[in-house]
């Protein structure tokens, strides 16, 4: 038998994911500021592209939090 859907801690998990992703973005940005002029252009572009994907992921996490809030409000 399948377990019932327990969504009570989803917002907490999503917020942790946002915090972790934002920390990774800051670290990557700081690394580029400190070492970007020593790196080849391709590696710099890769790090910037990864941070753009992280930003998109954060937007998705925030949308999921809104969905969770709506779901909890209905209950």
TrEMBL record:
**Domain of life of the organism in this record?**
Bacteria
Give the matching InterPro entries. Answer: SASP_thioredoxin-like (IPR017524)
**Protein name as annotated:** Small acid-soluble spore protein Tlp
As recorded in Swiss-Prot or TrEMBL, the protein's gene is named tlp
């Amino acid at each position: 038998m399948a377990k019932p859907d327990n969504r009570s801690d989803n917002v907490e998990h999503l917020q942790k994911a946002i915090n972790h992703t934002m920390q990774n973005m800051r670290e990557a940005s700081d690394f580029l500021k400190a070492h970007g002029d020593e790196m080849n252009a391709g590696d710099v572009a890769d790090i910037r592209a990864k941070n753009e994907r992280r930003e998109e992921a954060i937007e998705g996490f925030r949308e999921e939090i809104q969905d969770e809030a709506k779901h909890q409000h209905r209950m």
